[in-house]
Amino acid sequence: MINKQSASNLIILLSPRSKTPWRSGFNRLKGQKAGRSRHTIRILQTDLHCSNMPVYKLRYFNNPRRGRAELARLILHQAGVEFEDIRFPHSEWPAIKPSTPFGQVPVLEVDGQVLAQSNTIARYLARKYGLAGKNDWEQALADMYADNINDLLNAAVPPFMEKDPVKQKEMYEKFMAETIANHVVLIEKQLKKNNTGYLVGNDLTWADLAYYAYFSDFLEVKFGSAFLKDAPLLKALIDRVKALPNIKKWTEFRNSKYPEEN
Ligand SMILES: N[C@@H](CCC(=O)N[C@@H](CS)C(=O)NCC(=O)O)C(=O)O
Question: Where is the GST N-terminal domain (predicted)?
């Protein structure tokens, strides 16, 4: 199988200006003796084309927190897919903004093509890597939950943007006591109804990752876990996602690399 490293070797290999890396690149790529015929190059091009491993570049601000890009990151990490996690400072935004489809991030570049809208990006990746639900109905349910999380993200924007700290505190308290408390009651009922430990069907979907990202990675970090005290099923879901080996590996790495996000 050709991975990202061997793909870049191939680019070196095919470059008309590179003579020396040709042989070593080929050896690393195929693990066999290099040959210089056109035929070999054609085989390699076919291998690369058929390897079906897109080059992903995810672009988002380096602040605040994980924001609207984290769900895509979680899906890619859970799926074990390589991607470039590009986080840029706000000072670079004016130069980047015009290159995005709607003047917003996150954007995902897939082999050079650009996709915007965080839920569209997440849904695309979830479908590709088997996390979207097993049939049309499950996929619709996963969409429903992901849309709910989008509403909850939007509801957190006004307190987040508020500049007056006293007013901001009041707004956050109201947001937690009303918006979040109400939603927690409703989601607890849904989890009880599904009764599998997951939001949709009997397997992990991107809906579970979206709830984990919002309720644990965002709310719990910011406000503590008091809001989960009467929500044993949501808490169990969060703990289940948190314990997934790939998610655990990613969050441990992320928390050491980006400690300012915690
Ligand atoms: N509905 C969009 C909203 C994207 C959005 O609001 N992005 C913000 C960052 S979280 C942004 O790009 N702000 C900069 C700007 O609008 O100039 C999505 O979910 O991707």
Answer: 56-133
